[in-house]
Specification:
binds zinc ion
């Protein structure tokens, strides 16, 4: 049986990162699984609150579990950005492998206290579940934004990262290191790239020795991603790039088959479009 903790330790040992891709339907699940299978690398499926609500918490859990079991493959499921303990409990009971418990909008002390309580409550449901905590400001939705937010004030410091990891008992830390959710229009067009604070990642890694997740990886400079992984990032989240590919593939299918109504003849265009993006990111994260 495959366990996320082991896959994470293996990736860390080899200086690689696990790709985390958000899904909202079976097209995305199929595309991400096919790309991980093709490269034979572990992969994390992510479902945020909105995505879980659309698919059903237990339904997406059953789908990912069925792939892991049928193909004996290291595919795992993460409850992305969970803002309440009740929703986190739902995901833990449904069998999710990890939960991003995100109270980063709260003052630091409150974030520490409530994250610690959540870690205890969720490990009581499943001792093997991994809990990720979040500090700092990395913006909001994985969408196309008009304007760049000012995130410099929200960078995580090594001191608060160490204190947060030690006082909460989290397994994984999501720091703010120049990353942000969503993409600017210029990033979708490939004209600009996100840049990361590599030195800060290294300092946070040295201070905490914890597995680190990079949220908002879409549209990031490739060389920065390589350096970030070398500096201690173990999981990289990609969502917006997949959403853009999903939409483009769907548009292509509808345009090429204007009179078609059979979903399984139209949707493979979207699967292929998403798969190409997932493949490119997984190759980079796994040095393949
Ligand atoms: Zn995120």
């Amino acid at each position: 049986m495959h366990h996320l903790r082991e896959a994470l330790e293996q990736s860390q040992k080899n200086g690689l990162a696990i790709g985390h891709f958000n899904v909202a339907d079976m097209v995305l699940v199929k595309a991400v699984f096919a790309s991980a299978q093709e490269l034979n690398v572990p992969v994390l499926i992510g479902a945020s609150g909105g995505e879980r609500e659309f698919m059903g918490v237990r339904q997406i859990a059953a789908m990912v579990r069925s792939l892991r079991e049928e193909f004996d493959f290291p595919i795992f499921l993460n409850a992305d950005h969970t803002h309440s303990l009740a929703k986190a409990v739902d995901a833990a009971k449904a069998g999710f492998d990890s939960i991003v418990f995100d109270l980063s909008a709260l003052p630091f002390e409150q974030n520490v206290r409530q994250t610690k309580e959540a870690v205890e409550a969720l490990k009581a449901i499943n001792p093997d579940i991994l809990i990720e905590g979040e500090i700092g400001d990395i913006g909001t939705g994985s969408e196309i934004h008009e304007e760049a937010p000012d995130l410099t004030k929200g960078l995580t410091t090594p001191e608060e990262a160490k204190q947060f990891v030690e006082s909460t008992g989290i397994d994984i830390l999501a720091p703010a290191v120049g990353n942000m959710h969503g993409m600017l229009k210029s990033m979708v067009q490939g004209e600009t790239k996100k840049r990361l604070n590599i030195a800060r990642i290294g300092q946070i890694k040295s201070a905490t020795r914890a597995p680190l997740t990079l949220h908002g990886g879409s549209g990031t400079d490739d060389e920065d991603l390589r350096k970030a992984i070398a500096a201690g990032i173990n999981i990289v989240h990609i969502n917006t790039e997949l959403r853009v590919a999903w939409r483009r593939g769907l548009d292509e299918g509808l345009t090429k088959l204007p009179n078609e109504v059979v979903p399984y003849k139209i949707l493979p265009f979207a699967v292929e479009s998403v798969k190409q993006v997932a493949l490119s990111r997984l190759r980079l994260f796994n040095n393949k």
